[in-house]
Amino acid sequence: MSKPTSKTLSKTYRLHRNCIDNIELLVKAGRAETQTALLEMLVSREKARYDMEREEEELDRAWALAMESSEYCAEMKAIQSDFASSDAETARRIP
């Protein structure tokens, strides 16, 4: 029979005193119900930022590859040319 796994684990971290003070201040200020909840929220927020940075890096790589493609560059020039007159017409209407 296998042992059931817990959804939480207990860890011990050594933090600077000012960090502990700030955690306590934020919980007292109502930013989270508990210190654990605050830390989980902050880690989740940082993980989302990390994921977004990785996604942006991937998009940058994709754009760089696209810009190396003569077919892609030709298509972009054609689109720019197609819209040049309508852009100029719209610009004349701006007061």
Q: Please, could you describe this protein's structure?
A:
- The protein starts with 16 loop residues before the first helix and ends with a helix.
- It is an all-alpha fold and 95 residues long.
- The longest helix is centred in the middle third of the chain and has 33 residues, at 35-67.
- The chain has helices spanning 17-28, 35-67, 70-93.
- Helix content is 73%, strand content 0%.
- The mean pLDDT is 90.
- It has one domain (17-93).
- The protein is built from three helices and no strands.
- The radius of gyration is 26 Å and the shape is elongated.
> What is the β-strand count?
0
Number of helices in the DSSP assignment: 3
What do the pLDDT scores average to? 90
Specify the structural class: mainly alpha
* Residue share in β-strands: under 5%
Order of helices and strands: HHH
